[in-house]
Backbone:
């Protein structure tokens, strides 16, 4: 831990106000970035995907559940995996309870994995989650959105819009879709890697603390992480 700079309250307040100027500038820049994101072009998605759900087989259009927008979290749980990815599980701990708020803004949130629906349901029950989670095992949805690589990474593999050569068959992401007035489905946005940071409330809270994420001395950034039922009590 670095040696803290201990000061009196007046000096602390001056430093805090100076930092507030930077925070406000960042907030303004983030708002501007959000506007640019919303101005990105759309691309039509042929509704040829089929998903296994607890209410039967559904098309991509049906996953919208009658709403205008759809957010899909690409959860790393492969066909032969016994457990979901610890990192995706960390992110998914943020999903329960927000779906009702998103629905009020005409947006459906769900997760998709390339595992069987039975395996998804088993892991979801273990984790105590209630958010919608469907299987894309029998479709090309995950590979088409650059989050699953059934044959393993190859020369043409990309992730986060760049060449990718890590030995992984499943990776994480978030994709956004919208339905046009005539029912046409459009892909408007996808984000991966550090672009998923804003979805994780725990990380956002840790960023407010003196130690922050405190991951600098670890073998890799999330070496400390466990699924929420695997921490020592």
Residues:
């Amino acid at each position: 831990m670095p040696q803290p700079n201990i000061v009196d309250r007046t000096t602390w307040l001056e430093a805090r106000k100076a930092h507030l100027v930077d925070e406000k500038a960042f907030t303004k820049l983030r708002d501007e970035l959000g506007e640019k994101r919303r101005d990105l072009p759309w691309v039509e998605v042929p509704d040829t995907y089929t998903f296994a759900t607890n209410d039967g087989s559904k098309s991509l259009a049906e996953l919208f559940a009658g709403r205008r927008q759809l957010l899909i979290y690409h959860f790393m749980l492969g066909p032969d995996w016994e457990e979901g990815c610890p990192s995706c599980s960390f992110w998914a701990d943020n999903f329960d309870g927000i779906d009702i708020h998103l629905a009020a803004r005409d947006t459906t949130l769900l997760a998709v994995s390339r595992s069987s629906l039975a395996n998804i349901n088993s892991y979801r029950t273990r984790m105590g989650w209630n958010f919608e989670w469907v299987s894309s095992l029998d479709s090309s949805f995950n590979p088409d959105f650059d989050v699953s690589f059934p044959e393993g990474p190859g020369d043409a593999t990309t992730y986060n819009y760049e060449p990718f050569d890590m030995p992984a068959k499943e990776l994480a992401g978030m994709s956004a879709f919208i339905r046009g007035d005539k029912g046409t489905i459009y892909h408007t946005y996808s984000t991966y890697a550090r672009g998923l940071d804003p979805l994780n409330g725990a990380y956002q809270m840790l960023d407010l603390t003196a130690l922050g994420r405190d991951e600098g001395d670890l073998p890799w950034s999330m070496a400390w992480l466990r699924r929420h039922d695997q921490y020592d009590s």
